[in-house]
Amino acid sequence: MAKLSNLEEKYCCGCGLCNNFLEGMIDEKGYFRPCKELDSQEFDKSVCYCNSMVKSTNKGLWGEIKEAYFGYSTDENIRKKASSGGILTALACYLLRKKEIDCVIQVKVNKNNPLTTETVWNTNENEVINCCGSRYTASASLIDILKKIEFSKKYAVIGKPCDIRVLREYINLHKEYENIIYLFTFFCAGTPSKQANSKLMERMNIDENELKHFTYRGNGWPGKTTGITNKGEVSTIEYEESWGKVLGRDIQNICRFCWEGVGEAADISCGDGWYLKDNKPSFEESDGRNIILARTEKGNNLLKKLFNEGEIQLEKLDSLDCLKYMQPGQYMRKSSMFASILAMKLMLKKVPNYNMLSLLKYSKNISIKTNFKIFFGTLKRIIKGRIK
Ligand SMILES: Cc1cc2nc3c(=O)[nH]c(=O)nc-3n(C[C@H](O)[C@H](O)[C@H](O)COP(=O)(O)OP(=O)(O)OC[C@H]3O[C@@H](n4cnc5c(N)ncnc54)[C@H](O)[C@@H]3O)c2cc1C
Ligand code: SF4
Ligand code: SF4
Probe ligand 3: pick from 8, 11, 13, max atoms within 8 Å of CB? Predict the structure, then answer.
């Protein structure tokens, strides 16, 4: 692979959209990357995540929201199997059953390697239910999407927030793809690398080559991280340990500078509606619950329809104040973005094209001391070569 130096390559989110125009490959860390420098004649790189997410920094800390809810699927099987409350799965199943769409494009565990994913085009509910759960590993939801779309059909796409932003921007520029009628996403703190997944296997005493099934969470909420080998040996650790101690420590470059981890370009975005204990998220086992942000009227109407038909339970939130405590990582990443980007700029590092003034106002959410800590911490990591 030719060494690329442009911004889009450094901060590629691995969505796979450019693969519809250019060849791509999986890099050594497991992420999809284009094989050559993006040429705007072949592909309009303005839609790439590092170029498009910056538009949303002036839309408030949590982005535009029509209505916010707590909720879960009323199907006990989906709620239990799903990552949180199963809202994303319930939405996709409902749309297929009611024939409002023909196909859901989403990500599933790869049949050849449980630590990787593949993008699938599902046309029935069973297939959708088999995609339940969070996969804390690379995915390229938009791979080949433009080549395979049939204009006589209607689609919904579920992908990472970055994938959904890229697709939203692309559809805005190419109205012929408006037959992708729903865009859904989940809150996302980052995509762990292949190496992070290997470290997790070591910690769980699993021989990667012997791994048959792997779930990062689910079968409860949050549920345990569970691996089963070909010999039937089962190894589990707490979700908090697998994400907090291993996976979350090695994520894509762009994830550290991501503005839209709470899914701002989707019709509906779902996260963990953690219960709070002393204003901190509690990971004690419980029945699954999503926090649900309806980003568009269309998304909000769909949620109300499922609620009225008894498919999902919804409880409206009057205020978003709890998000700060429920999603401390998302809150901190956004609030500290000014300090980290400033340090990067001072060290002449490439950064997504942020408007510093719009970031400045969010830096006031955290103390001056914390801002300085982030600023000097970033400088230190650059000097030590831990940030390239
Ligand atoms: C990488 C990653 C980071 C996350 N970070 C956060 C966070 O910071 N805060 C938080 O609250 N929650 C986080 N989550 C969890 C997720 O946001 C919630 O579980 C969300 O509420 C979805 O719950 P659900 O029960 O509706 O999903 P389900 O009904 O179980 O559906 C999950 C959907 O996500 C899709 N999916 C799973 N993994 C991937 C992937 N790697 N790429 C693309 N699509 C995928 C599946 O295909 C399925 O459609 C993260 C999940 C992932 C995969
Ligand atoms: S962000 Fe998406 S479209 Fe842009 S280079 Fe990366 S994979 Fe391709
Ligand atoms: S943190 Fe942001 S850039 Fe990283 S995978 Fe999630 S949505 Fe994409």
Answer: 13
| pTM for the whole structure | 0.97
164 Cα–ligand 2 center, Å:
12
What is the C-alpha separation between 226 and 232, in angstroms, rounded?
Answer: 12
Tell me the domain boundaries of the chain: 1-327, 336-388
Lowest mean per-residue pLDDT among 3-7, 163-167, 212-216, 354-358? 3-7
Q: Please report which ligand is nearest the Cα atom of 158.
A: 1
Residue among 117, 186, 216 whose CB has most ligand 1 atoms within 8 A, to mutate: 186
Give the whole-angstrom CA distance, residue 108 versus residue 129: 10
Residue range 80-138, pLDDT digits in tens: 999 999 999 999 999 999 999 999 999 999 999 999 999 999 999 999 999 999 999 99
Gap between the Cα atoms of 119 and 130, Å rounded: 13
Kindly tell me the burial class for residue 10, based on how many C-beta atoms sit within 10 Å of its own C-beta (0-12, 13-18, 19 or more). middle
3-class secondary structure, 34 = strand
Element (H, E) at 309: none
Q: How far apart are CA 306 and CA 291, in angstroms?
A: 16
